[in-house]
Write a structure and sequence with these properties.
2 helices, alpha+beta, single chain, 9 strands, about 30% strand, binds copper (II) ion, Immunoglobulin-like, six-stranded mixed sheet
Length: about 180
């Protein structure tokens, strides 16, 4: 009887040791698995971030550019042909009165007017291309240095906000 008890006791003891050992193995196996998981989601999150700022520069505020005359150009003769280019907004006749459109304005040797008020009409040196034109010819321009500013304004002739403005300086040379 005693020997049986000893065997039983020894057997229970072994079983307990095996069970303890198994728990330890499990306990050791789990911790390394846990820290391995967090770095994985961090990888797919990284490529998504640069995609967002890349899309922003494409859609900026409207811009205007004087494509002719070029800055520092020397124009021979008394006529100065001006060509214009707008980006990010539709150029339309002011008479259409459509929100989200604009038309070109030129200021020759004249300072820009306040961005808060209508660009004046009938003022020397200020031209409204109110029919949606993208070019204009100044006649009888005096020889010497000149400054030309282009500005976009809405159908009410109020400058866009933020202002869409471009400036060139050129020289007229007598033929
Ligand atoms: Cu106008």
């Amino acid at each position: 009887m005693r020997t049986i008890h000893r065997y039983l006791a020894a057997g229970l003891g072994l079983a307990a040791l095996v069970a303890l050992g198994a728990e330890r193995v499990q306990a050791q196996a789990q911790p390394p698995a846990a820290p391995a998981t967090p770095p994985a989601p961090a990888v797919p999150a990284a490529p998504a971030a640069p995609a967002m700022p890349a899309a922003r520069p494409a859609a900026g505020p409207p811009k205007v550019r004087i494509t002719s005359p070029q800055n520092r150009a020397v124009v021979t003769g008394t006529s100065v042909h001006v060509t214009l280019e707008a980006q990010g907004i539709e150029i339309a006749p002011a008479s259409e009165e459509r929100p989200g459109t604009a038309h070109h304005h030129l200021f020759l040797d004249t300072d820009l007017t306040s961005p808060e008020v209508k660009i004046p009409q009938g003022t020397t040196g200020i031209i409204h291309l109110g029919r949606g034109q993208t070019e204009f010819t100044f006649d009888k321009v005096a020889p010497g240095p000149h400054r030309l500013i282009a500005e976009l304004a809405d159908f009410n002739h109020i400058p866009l906000k933020p202002p869409a403005v471009d400036t060139v300086r050129f020289t007229v040379k007598a033929p």
